[in-house]
Amino acid sequence: MSGQLVLVTGITGFIAGQVANAFLEAGYRVRGTTRGDKAKLLTDTIKVPGLEFSRVDNIATDDLSEALKGVYAIAHVASPLAGRTNIEDTLNTAIEGTLNVLRQATKAGIKKLVVTSTFGTLLDPNSPSAFAGLTIDHQSWGTASRETAAANSENDYFVYFTSKILAEKAVWDYAKEHPELDVATVLPGFVYGPFADHYPLPKMSGLGSNGYIYMLAQGGVPPLLPPFTVDVRDVAKTHVLALSVGPKPLGEKRYISNSGNITWAEAAVALKKAHPELKLGDSFPDLPGPASTLDNKYTTEQLNFGTWITPEETIIATWEALVELQKTW
Q1: C-beta separation of 318 from 210 below 8 A
Q2: CA atoms of 216 and 225, how far apart (whole Å)
Q3: In contact, 24 and 48? CB cutoff 8 Å
Q4: What angle do CA 304, 306, 309 make, to 5 degrees?
Q5: pTM of the predicted model as reported, rounded to 2 decimal places
Q6: How far apart are CA 23 and CA 44, in angstroms?
C-alpha cells in the first residue's frame, strides 16, 4: 500500500468505480482509464485525493505506456457487454483487450495484476449446471468457442460468457509463458448494489444488473437467472485483497466472489419486509432445477475475507440506491 499507484481500467463502470474506491480506501492511489474526452471532464470535475484519470479509447489496441507510467499494479475490470456490437467485436475486445493490458504491463515491468472475470467462466455458457444442485469451486471451468458463440448469437449471455471464458483462459495461458507475472482473477456472481461515489451516475438504460432489482421493485418479474448474488462492494473488496496475496502456483489465485443464492421470490420477500410500501409481484417462475452453489470458502479463507454482505442486504441496499438515483433523472 503506502500510496502505491493502481491502474483501474474502465473506471466509470459499475464494478470498476467501486473497485477504484476500495483501493483508495485501502491507501493506494488510483489512476482510472476512460474513453474519449471523458478523461479530461473527470479530471476537471472530480477532485479526490489520490485519484486521477487517463484517456484510453480502445483497450485492445491503444498504446498504454502513458497510462502505465509509475503504476505498481493493474486491476483490469473493463470488458465489453454483449449485444452492443457484433459477436466478433465483443470477443476480440474481451480477449485482445486483456492481452493488450498483459503485454504492455510486461513491457512496463509491472508484475501484479488482478483481472475481473465472472462466475460464467466456471460453467458452460448455456449454464445447465447452474440448476443441477452442484457445488462449483474455483477449479471449475466452462467450455466455449467462437463457433458456439456464433451459433448462439441471439443469446447475449451466451456470447458474454463465451468472451469471458476465452479472455480468462488467455490470461492464464499468458501467465504460464511469463512466470514473472503475479496474476489473480476475480469471479463474481450476478453483481448488484450501490453506485460508487465520485463518478457519473447511470441513466435508466444503463442500470445493468441493478435493472433487475428496479424491475422487481416496480412489481415486475425479472428474467430467470441463476440466483448467484454478490454485492458490488464485496466484489471490490475481493480485488483489493487478491492484490495483496503473494505469488502462488499458476491458477491458484482464482477467487470466486459470491455471497450466496437468492431467488426473485426470496428477494421480493426481503424487499417487502424492508419497504412495505412497495407493491411487489407474488408469482415467480420456479427454477428449472435445484440451484447450484458457488463455493466461496476458498476465497474466504485464502483472502481472510471476513463477513460477506448477505444477498438480502444487497437487494435492499440496491433498491435504496435506485431510489436516490431516480432523483437525478
Answers
A1: yes
A2: 13
A3: yes
A4: 140
A5: 0.96
A6: 21
